[in-house]
Amino acid sequence: MCELGQVGGKKLSFVKRALWQVESELAEDLREALIDFSKLVAGSAPQRLLVGPRVSDSKLGEWLDCLSAPARECSAATYAAFIPHPREWSPGSGLEVDLYRFGGDEWHHVGR
User: Fold this and answer.
1) In the chain, where the domains are located
2) Could you tell me where the beta strands, DSSP code E, fall in the chain?
3) Which one-letter DSSP state was computed for residue 16?
């Protein structure tokens, strides 16, 4: 999500300012998730979100611990949302999202 600016007589648009940056990695692969999270660190939006796969409770702690190091480098509000893989979605059913916000050097569960 961004704010657009315009230049020239043809009203050419450009990204003036990023408002939200969103990256997603739905494979249960922490290495790939870190690559995508690194893109959030490099960005400038005041709000940043990684959408990742819902993993077992035993793996969730590992994921959050691993994502903490790059989250500390973000100078913005930083979130992680964990969702079921799209192959598990069914028409008409709600999508459960576990949302976390990074602050005070740790992840805080915001809600489902």
Assistant:
1) 20-111
2) 2-7, 12-18, 20-24, 47-53, 77-83, 98-103, 106-111
3) E
Task: For residue 51, give both structure tokens.
Answer: 């959408």
> What φ, ψ does residue 14 adopt, rounded to 5°?
-145, 160
DSSP 8-state code for residue 40: H
**What is the pTM assigned to this prediction?**
0.87
CA gap 47, 35 in Å, rounded: 18
Q: Cite the beta strand spans of 33-88 per DSSP E.
A: 47-53, 77-83
The 10s digit of each residue's pLDDT in 38-80 is 999 999 999 999 999 999 988 999 999 999 999 999 989 999 9
pLDDT score for 86: 86
